Amino acid sequence: xKNNLSKILGERLLKVSDVFKATGISKTTLTDIYYQRAKNIxxxxxxKICDYLxxxxxxxxxxxxxxxxx
Length: 70
Hints:
Layout: E1 2-3, H1 5-12, H2 16-23, H3 27-34, H4 43-53, H5 57-60, E2 61-62
Antiparallel strand pairs: 1-2
C-alpha cells in the first residue's frame, strides 16, 4: 500500500507538526507515514488523519498489488 500524506500536505502547505497538533498522533508515527516507512498503520490513526484533512480514506491510501515473483 502507498499513502499520499506527503502529497496532500504539500498541496495544502501543511507540516507534519500541524497534523500532530490537531490530532495528537505522535510525530514519530506521522513522520513514518509521511516517508512511507510505516508498515502497520492503525485504522483509527488513518481515520484521524482523514478527519483532519477532510479527505476520504481512498485519497490517503492507495492499494498497489504486489507483482508475482514467478
